[in-house]
Amino acid sequence: MSSKILGRIFVKKYVGRNMEKTPKQIQENRIINHELHVNYELARMVKGHAISMLYRDGDSLFSKLPGYLYQLETTNKGSYTKLLKDKNDVFKYVFFALGASISGFTRYGRLVIVIDGIYLKGKYHGTLFVVVTQDGNGQFFPLASGVGNVGCNESWTWFLRCLREAFWLSTGFDLRF
Q1: H/E element holding 105?
Q2: Helix or strand run (H / E) with residue 73
Q3: Which of 2, 76, 113, 170 is the most exposed place for a label (fewest CB within 10 A)?
Q4: Whole-prediction pTM value?
């Protein structure tokens, strides 16, 4: 049997739950109690096909990003989002800051922010940008997030410019870097 057929069996059995099974566990469960003996490599491929069927290919999901950002702005008053595409209309960078985070920072946050970038691994390489501060209780308070290129000064500059715009346009609060 092919891994695609076995992937369909796996999805029917586990849709919505337990998708974190490892290939070894899939192999040991004999493809979900149908008593099919498979090797580790086939079990890994089964899981890959099952995930692809459930979540589709990530490329098609990028086309939904503008709609998501629009909904974010319309349902969260004061939110700021920005999407940058290249000349071929392909995703390049994204930035978003929720209105509640912006107003919460200007009212209750400590006026020091921490900015960090985390490398994304897998099919889509890049950097996840995260901006946080501390609230009055000393807890982390998220301010903004975004995605850009790995180790690219241009994406860092774009992200910081968006961060400054988000706070200036929403509250008149000017961030200095």
Answers
A1: helix 99-108
A2: helix 65-75
A3: 2
A4: 0.67
